[in-house]
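dumping this here so i dont lose it
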């Protein structure tokens, strides 16, 4: 027998739950389906939110020829063969629109496989519908993105999950014969995590693990006992990886240690590489704390070294210590801004010559040409400082480093002002 999720897969938009921004009365995809004119697009969203179902509904409700490929099992040869069939379909009197090619997990297609689609999409041989759980900006080539609109699908909210639960226990041929006692849905919805398929799988598990003829109780205890654990959603190579590390860094930059430790915990629980986290802490220490507290970089480097020595799970402790320290430090990005400003000027100013007095003079000829002449050795002067020009002549007086307003750099600014006044 088919799994519950497959038995309840909607066949029309009337039964489709969620994504009202796309399939509601004024949704762009509903308007396309109603008009029968479907444009190429890519559906981007987490698992279990209706990407494949939406493609099947389009197949059921339009009179366009519909072809399916899975990026997991298909190669360039398969793509070319299905495009040839689409050309044949387009010439058929039985097709009222362009043939539709649905590619599930399109992010798994290589660049060459995606390239093989371009011509057929461009000349209108096919209408492409792709489905992906990964950010198309990273996984889909730019020429294909320019030819297909990207629509984002969201996890189902609590009301939509409740609607799905009610539909399942009243409309499924098996569940409708059972007796349910729904006392609490908190754990059920939490474990489902906005994933319709996961919700239906949990309900099916509860039904199958209950004695025949006995009322099926849905509450926090029964759901937790049946599942035992809640594997956290975290993809170390995907969108969530980038989103969570971004939230982690921005929480440190924003001086919120509680949020920073929370995102750290999410990464650790999800199995993130601890050395990746430690490398980001080193970068944050230099970029966002910088000269406001140079010790931050020392601690971040020590944390990276500790992770390599002790590993996990004990490594979580120095990671947390460093995270809290960096989040509570005074912040300065003056070094980050200085090097960016200097690099930008280097790009536009070209290879300006080094002033003669700063050049190395290892040969008699170079000395005769003036290399090193008039250079003043700082340690020969009071306070180990003497005014002289160190930038190329064309950039004399240019400032890249602008001290930020914090005690450490206030001291630096005062010292520099005293020297160069």
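and the seq i came up w/
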């Amino acid at each position: 027998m088919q799994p519950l999720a497959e038995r309840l897969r909607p066949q029309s938009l009337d039964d489709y739950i969620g994504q009202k921004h796309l399939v509601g009365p004024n949704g762009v995809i509903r308007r396309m389906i109603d008009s029968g004119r479907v444009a190429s697009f890519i559906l981007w969203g987490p698992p279990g939110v209706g990407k494949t179902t939406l493609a099947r509904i389009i197949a059921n409700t339009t009179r366009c020829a519909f072809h399916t490929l899975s990026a997991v099992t298909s190669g360039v040869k398969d793509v070319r063969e299905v495009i040839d069939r689409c050309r044949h379909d387009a010439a058929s009197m039985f097709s009222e629109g362009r043939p539709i090619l649905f590619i599930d997990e399109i992010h798994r297609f290589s660049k060459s496989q995606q390239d093989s689609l371009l011509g057929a999409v461009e000349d209108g041989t096919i209408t492409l519908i792709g489905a992906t759980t990964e950010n198309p900006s990273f996984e889909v080539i730019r020429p294909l993105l320019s030819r297909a609109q990207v629509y984002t699908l969201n996890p189902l909210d609590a009301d939509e999950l409740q609607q799905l639960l009610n539909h399942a226990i009243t409309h499924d041929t098996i569940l409708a014969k059972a007796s349910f006692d729904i006392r609490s849905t908190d754990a059920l919805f939490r474990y489902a995590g906005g994933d319709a398929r996961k919700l239906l799988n949990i309900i099916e598990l509860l039904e199958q693990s209950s004695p025949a003829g006995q009322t099926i109780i849905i509450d926090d205890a029964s759901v937790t006992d049946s599942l035992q654990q809640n594997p956290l959603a975290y993809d170390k190579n995907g969108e969530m990886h980038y989103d969570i590390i971004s939230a982690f860094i921005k929480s440190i930059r924003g001086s919120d240690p509680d949020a920073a430790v929370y995102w750290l915990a999410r990464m650790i629980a999800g199995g993130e590489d601890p050395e990746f986290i430690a490398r980001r802490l080193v970068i944050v220490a230099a970029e966002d704390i910088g000269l406001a507290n140079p010790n931050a970089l020392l601690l971040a480097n020590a944390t990276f070294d500790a992770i390599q020595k002790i590993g996990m799970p004990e490594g979580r402790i120095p990671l947390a210590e460093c995270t809290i320290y960096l989040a509570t430090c005074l912040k300065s990005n003056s070094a980050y801004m200085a090097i960016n400003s200097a690099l930008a000027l280097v790009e536009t100013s070209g290879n300006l010559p080094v002033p003669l007095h700063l050049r190395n003079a290892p040969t008699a000829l170079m000395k005769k040409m003036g290399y090193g002449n008039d250079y003043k050795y700082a340690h020969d002067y009071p306070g180990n400082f003497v005014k002289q020009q160190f930038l190329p002549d064309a950039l004399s007086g240019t400032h890249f480093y602008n001290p930020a307003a914090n005690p450490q750099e206030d001291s630096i600014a005062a010292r520099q002002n005293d020297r160069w006044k």
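The chain has 20 helices and seven strands.
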